[in-house]
Amino acid sequence: MHAYYGIENSANLWTDKFSPRVLADLVGNSSAIATLRTWLSNWPGNQATGKASKVSTRKAILISGAPGIGKTTSAILICRELGFQTMNVNASDSRGKTGAVSDGIAGTLASTVREFVTNRNIGIDGLRSTKTALIMDEVDGMAGGDRGGISELIEVIKHTRIPIICICNDRYSQKLKTLANYCVDLPFQRPNKLQLRKYLNQIVASQRLDVDSDAVDALIEANNNDLRSSINQLQLWGMSSKHHGRNEISKKDVATSVFQAIDVLFRPSPLKTLDERLNLVFQHSDMIPLFVQENYACMRPRDSTNELQRIVHVAAASSRVAEGDVFATTINKTQNWTMMPPANIVSCVLPTSAVRGSRETFGQAERHTHRFPSLLGKLSSKSKSQRLLSELYQHFRSSGRSCSTQLEFCLWYASLTKRLLTRPLFSQARGGKELDGIPDVLNLMQTYNFTRGDWANIQEITGLSGKGPTFENPNTQIPTNVKSTFTRSCKRELQFSD
Ligand SMILES: Nc1ncnc2c1ncn2[C@@H]1O[C@H](COP(=O)(O)OP(=O)(O)OP(=O)(O)O)[C@@H](O)[C@H]1O
Ligand SMILES: [Mg+2]
Q1: Where do the AAA+ ATPase domain residues begin and end (predicted)?
Q2: Cα of 136 to ligand 2 centre, how many Å?
């Protein structure tokens, strides 16, 4: 990096100017980088012998980690060091046929990528070949599920003749669940404060910036160890000639994301004044109370030396959260917004102060960061279920065979109806006899004016999430041929269709 200190062009971004040119310049994650190197340099060997362990024979690797900590840079540098040429695809930028960003590599680009990864001449085994690797950056920006993006990428991984390095921010994103099964898992950690301080101080010195060393520390903290935004901030400071001290940062110089704010609130080190904590909450006052509710019980309070004390602290936080809820409801009812500051103190500042410390992980694969409020996901599935239920109920009522209310239908009839609509379709019979249940189901659907769409929706609204036979979705037990014949018969015979 030192070689680049001399270049003077204020139009250049410092993140580019000081971007590591060789692996040794990278801050942190040395063991992850070593793993990447081993995987990449063994890649041809794995493919040839097929004897290596299951993990190392995977044809793709998934680098995950917070923004601005050098994931993309590491991938590019390591490929270069090992003599790989790279094709770098930013998955969230690429557009498919429809032009939608979420198309990922579907559409036109997909064929380019496919050609690239399967072409024998570019592969590693041909004599004329140069070594090549594909870097798929920001795969969490791709469409999930079966909409082309991720599943397309998985297909590409299955057939690839060259190594594929996928990069994402959130390894635990629901969308990446299947992809992760095809990839070696390689989490990157945020570099620690010490490493970052050294790196940033070098930039401060080389640019002769008038910045205190504790301002650098505060900068790192405020940016949550994101090296890229810390460097950007330094560059901004470099444009003015004034002195920069620590206080600068606490004046909300750096806008805080909701994740950063929640991190700071739960952090063990004593944070600032009540005002400053409250300010943090006010930056995202719609979200932070939800984050607090989701996460307070996972904290190991720094003041607790045994389990009992821990429970006492968590219980105190829990009471505040409950009181905060009362505040929020009252504000909503009365529209008395002047109550917001005390409400935020009760619902966010006090509970986070009571339990601040380190985060506890309960499951093995659980990530070590604060969780997004699950309430929001639940609210959205609730409103979807309600919409589906009311559609179903309208059809049910229109048959004139029952005068129950929607609630009664939901509580008494829905599960039974599901049973009657699915059971006949998964008999163990063979040789064409497995289709025998279809007329019964159609008959019932005709009687109650249900459509094929209702048939699917009722599975969804009565489904329970959990493991074991009780929770199994009967839909999955129905043989494919029965299901397709059933769908065709619905189209043919039902009076109401979707
Ligand atoms: N570990 C690091 N060592 C040195 N410089 C770094 C490091 N991490 C980030 N930087 C600086 O930040 C810039 C951006 O890094 P990079 O694009 O690799 O981050 P990223 O982890 O891929 O982020 P994102 O998740 O947003 O894509 C680099 O050009 C470099 O200047
Ligand atoms: Mg990147």
Answers
A1: 57-194
A2: 10
Q: Which amino acid is at 466?
A: G
Classify residue 134: in a domain, yes or no. Answer: yes
Is residue 68 domain-shared with residue 173, that is, in the same domain?
Answer: yes
Same domain, yes or no, for 281 and 406?
no
Same domain for 58 and 152, yes or no, is: yes
Looking at the CA of residue 18, tell me the nearest atom of ligand 1: 31
Q: How many CA atoms lie within 13 A of 201 on its CB side?
A: 12
| Residues sharing a CB contact under 8 Å with residue 476, sequence separation 6 or more, in sequence order | none
Give the ligand whose atoms come closest to the C-alpha of residue 65: 1
Report yes or no on 6 lying in a domain: no
Residues 320, 394 within the same domain: no
How far is Cα of residue 96 from the mean position of the Cα atoms in its chain?
22
Nearest to 261 by CA among 273, 247, 279: 279
pLDDT, block means (10 residues), the chain with 498 residues? 40 81 91 92 62 65 91 93 85 47 47 65 50 86 62 84 89 83 91 91 88 85 86 81 63 63 84 82 89 92 89 96 95 89 95 90 68 84 89 91 90 91 85 87 93 91 80 81 92 74
339 plus 433 within the same structural domain: no
Instruction: Count other C-beta atoms under 10 Å from residue 328's C-beta.
Output: 17
**Residues 157, 37 share a domain:** yes
Question: Does residue 314 share a domain with residue 183?
Answer: no
Q: Is residue 339 part of a domain?
A: yes
**Counting beta carbons within 10 angstroms of the beta carbon of residue 213, is it exposed (0 to 12), middle (13 to 18) or buried (19 or more)?**
exposed
Ligand 1, atom 16: closest residue by C-alpha: 70
Task: Identify whether 222 is part of a domain.
Answer: no
Confidence (pLDDT) at 390? 93
- Say which ligand is closest to the CA of 187: 1
Atom number, ligand 1, closest to the C-alpha of residue 17? 31
Q: How many domains does the chain have?
A: 3
Hey, what are 128's tokens?
């004329």
Pocket of ligand 1 (CB under 6 A): 15, 18-20, 26-28, 67-73, 169, 191, 227-228, 231
- Of the residues 352, 372, 392, which one is the last residue of a structural domain? 372
CA of 70 to the centre of ligand 1 (A): 3
Q: Which two tokens stand for residue 360?
A: 């506890």
63 and 157 within one domain: yes
For the record, the structure tokens of 296 come out as 């307070």
Instruction: Calculate how far, in angstroms, residue 139's C-alpha sits from the geometric centre of ligand 1.
Output: 16
* Closest-lying ligand 1 atom to the alpha carbon of residue 199: 4
Q: Which domain holds residue 69?
A: 29-187
Question: What residues contact 180, with CB distance under 8 A and at least 6 apart?
Answer: 62, 171
- Identify the domain boundary among 145, 167, 187: 187
Q: Measured in angstroms, how far is the CA atom of residue 226 from the centroid of ligand 1?
A: 8
Q: What is the pLDDT of residue 366?
A: 62
Distance CA 270, CA 418 (A): 55
